[in-house]
Amino acid sequence: MRNLANVTSSRRALLTLIPVSLAAGWTYWLSWRTTGSLPTSRMTAEPHNVRQHPTYWFNDGSIVIRSRSMSNGEVCFKLHESLLRRQSRFVQRMLDSETSADSEVLIPPELGVQVQDFTALLEHLYHDIPLSAEAPFSHVAAILRVSSPNQLDLPSVHMSARAYFVSMFPQGPQPFAHPSSHLKEALALVQSYQIPSIRKGIYYSIVTTSEFEPEDDDLDLEIFIKPNGLPGSSSTPHLVLPPTDVERCRSLMTGIVEHFTPVLFTPPATPHMACTDVFADKWMPLVITPAISNSGVCKPLEMLEQIKQIDWAAEGLCAACVREKIQEWTQEQEDVWEKMDSWLVG
User: Fold this and answer.
1) Residue scoring higher pLDDT (25 or 109)
2) Three-state SS for 233?
3) One-character DSSP codes across 167-231
4) What is the mean pLDDT of residues 59-64?
5) How many CA atoms lie within 13 A of 190 on its CB side?
6) CB of 80 within 8 A of CB of 62?
7) Across 11-29, average pLDDT
8) Cβ(302)–Cβ(329) below 8 Å
């Protein structure tokens, strides 16, 4: 921060030595280069690098949207005002305000809008890559962020993005299928946009399929995921959960192990002695041994489903006991799912 302050002070000192006419001339040339028109009386600090977007700069466009990146570069989009005005409350407010130049909108950097997110939104609005069930997580997450009320505020688009986002994650204990990736980013989005229906399943997937505990070196780096699902300021791709989420994961793991250990390591009883003897003989090789090798004690939903899929009739269990036990194991999955609410403290 001290270096940044020094740079800023030096820049101000340098500007005081430049003739006003030269500074004004540079501003006029830069504005003409990017928008094709002279600037209005609204003067703002220009970024270091300005470029037109290679795809979303339409010659017949009627509005220029300027979006600044974190590196102080600026990307300009020439778009169709009627489309954006109809969809975005933010654009409506900016165009109707006196602080915005005619047919030009600068997205304030404090909104946190990323150029890649805005590009994803345009891909959807112009039907190049629309939201769909097949859209990748990164595309849906980008549109979910940029269409939110605290960014560009597109209510109908945000509702659609939210629905597709929710459909990517399980909302119940059975059948439970873990998403392949993006769990930590998804959790941050769930917290930010208050999507409780998939919150529990994402925590469960993080606990059972990933390493949620930060390494010692991680604590010294600014790589915690931001509330909107974006990684922190570090260039490393390794993402770390915030401390509050790490604590919730620890609590969930403890609750799972304490609850499921006696269930897993105790052969079930049945009304029939012969069927009880089958469990006594087969439980170790068919259930406990695979659970130990696959960390099944930490994965109750999957382990119970695996137990249900064993052909117990072929192992000697009567049909009535098979039906009864499958019902019990299904109910145990439901019980674990419900108890997870109390294990997720905070």
Assistant:
1) 109
2) coil
3) HTS--SSTT----SS-HHHHHHHHHHHT-GGGHHHHHHHHHHHS--SPPGGGGGSS-BPPTTS--
4) 94
5) 21
6) yes
7) 39
8) no
Using one digit for the tens of pLDDT, what is the confidence trace for 279-306? Answer: 999 999 999 999 999 999 999 999 999 9
Using only the alpha carbons of the chain, give its radius of gyration: 28
Please count the CA atoms within 13 angstroms of the CA of 244 that sit on its side-chain side: 8
- The H-or-E segment that residue 253 falls in is helix 243-265
Evaluate the omega torsion of the peptide bond into residue 175 and state whether it is cis, within 30 degrees of 0: yes
CA atoms within 13 A on the CB side of 155: 4
For residue 331, give the amino acid letter: Q
| Inter-residue contact 52 to 74 (CB < 8 Å) | no
Helices and strands per DSSP (H, E), number in the chain: 14, 4
> Quick check: 312 and 268 in contact, CB under 8 A?
no
- How far apart are alpha carbons 69 and 81 in whole angstroms? 22
Name the nearest CA neighbour of 253 among 182, 344, 190.
344
Mean of all residue pLDDT scores within the chain? 82
Averaged pLDDT for residues 188-211: 93
Spatial distance between the Cα atoms of 306 and 324, rounded to a whole number of angstroms: 16
Give the per-residue pLDDT at 228.
53
- The answer to whether 227 and 213 are in contact (CB under 8 A) is no
Indicate the pLDDT class of residue 22, thresholds 50, 70 and 90.
very low
88 vs 276: CA distance, rounded Å: 65
Q: How many CB atoms lie within 10 A of CB 244?
A: 11
Residue 240 phi/psi, 5-degree rounding, is -125, 135
209/201 Cα distance (integer angstroms):
12
Q: Please count the residues of the chain.
A: 346
Strands (E) in the chain, as ranges, are 49-57, 63-68, 73-79, 104-107
Packed helices 137-146 and 183-193: angle between N→C axes, nearest 10 degrees: 20
Helix (H, G, I), strand (E, B) or coil at 236: coil
Q: Are strands 73-79 and 63-68 parallel, antiparallel or unpaired?
A: antiparallel
